[in-house]
Amino acid sequence: MSTTGKVTGIIANLVTVEVNGPVAQNEICYIKLGDSRLMAEVIKVNGKSASVQVYESTRGVRKGNDVEFMGYMLEATLGPGLLSSNYDGLQNNLATMTGVFLQRGEYTSPIDMEKKWDFTPLAKAGDKVVAADWLGEVKEGWLPHKIMVPFSFKGEYTVKSVAAAGSYKASDTVAVVTDAAGEDHNVTMVQKWPVKVAIGGYKEKPRPYRIMETGVRCIDTLNPMAEGGTGFIPGPFGCGKTVLQHAIAKQGEADVIIMAACGERANEVVEIFAEFPELIDARTGRKLSERTTIICNTSNMPVAAREASVYTAMTIGEYYRAMGLKVLLLADSTSRWAQALREMSNRMEELPGADAFPVDLPAIISNFYARAGIVTLNNGETGSVTFIGTVSPAGGNLKEPVTESTKKAARCFYALSQNRADRKRYPAVDPIDSYSKYLEYPEIAEYLNAKVDPQWVEKVNKAKNYILRGKEAYEQINILGDDGVPMEYHNRYWKSELIDFIILQQDAFDAIDSSTPMDRQEFMLNKVLEVCDAPVDFESFEDCSAHYKNIINIMRQMNYSEYKSADFEKYLEQLNKVTRHDN
Amino acid sequence: MTTKAFQRIYTQLEAITKATVALKAQGVSNDELATVDGRLAQVVKIKGDLVTLQVFSGTEGIPTDSEVIFFGEAPSLNVSEQLAGRFFNAYGEPIDNGPAVDGEKRFIGGPSVNPYRRKQPSQLIPTGIAGIDLNNTLVSGQKIPFFANADQPYNQVMANVALRADVDKIILGGMGLTNDDYLYFKQMFENAGALNKIISFVNTTEQPPVERLLIPDMALTAAEYFAVDKNEKVLVLLTDMTLYADALSIVSNRMDQIPSKDSMPGSLYSDLAKIYEKAVQLPDGGSITIIAVTTLNDGDITHAIPDNTGYITEGQLFLRTDTDTGKVIIDPFRSLSRLKQLVIGKQTREDHGQVMNTGVRLYADAANAKTKLENGFDLSDYDLRCLDYAKDYSNKLLAIDVNIKIDQMLDTAWDLFGKYFKPEELGIKQNLVDKYWKGN
């Protein structure tokens, strides 16, 4: 007999329920309202009174409505078919919902249980297995999707039987495993896992030691993201957060991309819906939508499901990581999630922390970021979840609780600057404030020097130094005037402008410039540093600016041309002429 | 609202604040309407038998023995073609001496469109104002506010934009409009001979502030009727959203909620998003485009209202008075239309994107030159050219009194580039320079 209850109070989406039996924190319940059932989650219990946050509009709910408790927490359904699906924050399939409007109480299955998949066994009878070990695989698009011992299985099991190669429904039993007590358990292609609990089942979680390429120069060259790493992009509105995140999603060097649109604009998600089925992933030649799962809880969808959406996304990411795949998880924006927490905390009349956010906000954020990482699986293979979140700081002020808490948790910081955005210098990632802690990791430096260029890290730091000195020079010029500073200041300033225009700025809407592979980034950085390192002498500061403007113009044309094409070589020739001429 | 049989009536209030009353009542549902002493009110909180109602017109003079009648349902609007050409108050009651509207009863503040069923906005909305069309192109299904100081002519600009836009219906949601502005809109619409495609929901400054909370939902319920049921292109004008947010903070304050930034309720973002996200391009051709006004305190966009708005809307149009030309311009630095990339170079000429960016970049260089000038430094030849360019650019393209076609705007920009600059100073793709360059 499961616990039931009756509604006793309502404030917006916080409902209090008088219960008649045991309830668990975070347990799911349904409020009966006419023919529909509204899903809710227990967030506080006080005696016989449970406070639940409702994932739907509470219009029409009244005192005395029946509530049924389910005995489980909010779970994600995991199995083949997740990729290229579009879910809401509770993992309802948006594509199979009827009607133009989201009807309250309509819940759809995340996975098509009837769909057949071509199964190939990987384990055999007699094998000893534990949770997350691979029993077989199916082809999900082009990806080998592993069917695993469910994560919830504790201890060691013996494989009793595995289905022969063939076509099976997702809900068919494909393996039987026996536990230590001799009891048999059926395994299907589908399993469930509570989203707020991290999926384990791996041997170890080493420090990240490889780079994840994004094709975005200001990230890959200057502040690289590590595979299994964490980063965040704070910025005021209008600074290009979303454009940058979409660029990373399109070009990121990952097997699986999971995008959590958390409390943001619906039209941004529509853009992904419209574009991703058309765009081709350059590395695999497959459509981008085939490797992408979208979790979409836009700003007008129920607030409580916003919080759930990021956890659902992370759980799906961890699931694919356990298959030995590279997962890139993007969440836009984690501030909206924090605001959802604030709304609830406020309605429960908890004592507020800074800016009325709940006091445990930093703990919640760092716990979440900690779920990312590269892992060594039990069978020695590696899988990873790389997480990049955006933060929308109130008033563009980075001294606010969400930004500060995230800064402590994430290893890469890509600060978007209002000043750069105002001057249309996109991506507006501030080259001086931003950092990647991974550049300081010896294993990452070793990796970069082996993969890109033997002196790569040294060169990157040199470029950063040019940018910094350029900024200092610019400030001096502004204070003392063009004539009031030595010529060298102008030279320094223009060197930083060259790096800014050629390496940092990138046209996200140009077919060629939008994505720069690492070999091309290496080539361009070397060219830019050659120009910067060359000794030059100018008669006047106007000669100096004319010289660099000319070079910037030529190199911009190079950025817009196909790499190593006739046009590219033509501009390269022009560049060489200009630089040689000066020497 | 007329009384019907079997309505529950109570006559004992437990508590009264400036915006809410509380009483003991049975069988009341969340969000349902009631009248308190004849004034319309809505259930906002239920705690056991204690029900809290927000009274839209304020609680002045309400006695503790007021008659409270519950209606058992949320606020609604009757929708039909008869809405067209009419003026209503915040409750959806006619204020133009016309008859009540016959039609289907729709509850306001209904569910959201399934994002998966939305279509990508794709139709350019030309306005003739170059500061918008050239630099911040509008697209149907977009939501965008004007950020303006109280002294700027935002309502006039918005009325101009609305009347020039090619749409089937224009719905005005006026919140705290001064009576003068209300009459201005009315006259403007009449003069344009466009009354039959305009529907207005108006709350003026003379009316109680809490009533304003109903205006956006009323306007958008009407908009959804025409866009979803009739597949029409609907433009919704909401002015002034700052006054709407102020009304939200009044109610939350009376309900003892802990305020967050700038004494706004913690749910401000969600409250505003619920309204703005009604902007949509529907699969069957209908669309809702929202143009709003958010007034600022002396240009401060870090205040919670413009700040949250900016995160929700697809850009913002920033009005500023240009001291060099004395004209009100659309500020090219702070303004942005996020959806412009969907139409620029696709429904407009191929050079649009690069001309737009270059035009703004050169204007930024002029701003730098101006700083140098103000600091008493010598200006280079390039600086001087930038300054001259900026005046021309502001006059011929940024000013809100410009009314030309987009191709003319592009040609004007190339004229200015040719007049003041050399091709290599533009950083524009060579093939476009070859084709459109007008200088020597």
Count, helices of chain A: 14
Mean pLDDT over all positions of chain B: 92
Largest interface: A-B, 79 and 86 residues
The CATH topology label of the largest domain in chain B is Rossmann fold
What share of the residues of chain A lie within helices? 25-40%
So what's the CATH class of the largest domain in chain B?
Alpha Beta
Distance between the termini of chain B: 73 Å
Main structural class of chain B: alpha/beta
Q: The CATH topology of the largest domain in chain A is what?
A: Rossmann fold
Q: Report the strand count of chain A.
A: 28
User: Quick one: overall form of chain A?
Assistant: globular
Q: Structurally, how many domains make up the residues of chain A?
A: 4
The count of β-strands of chain B is: 21
Query: Which oligomeric state applies?
Result: heterodimer
Overall outline of chain B: elongated
The CATH class of the largest domain in chain A turns out to be Alpha Beta
Strand content of chain B: 15-25%
Low-confidence stretches of chain B: none
Main sheet attributes: strand count, strand direction, barrel closure of chain B? 10 strands, mixed
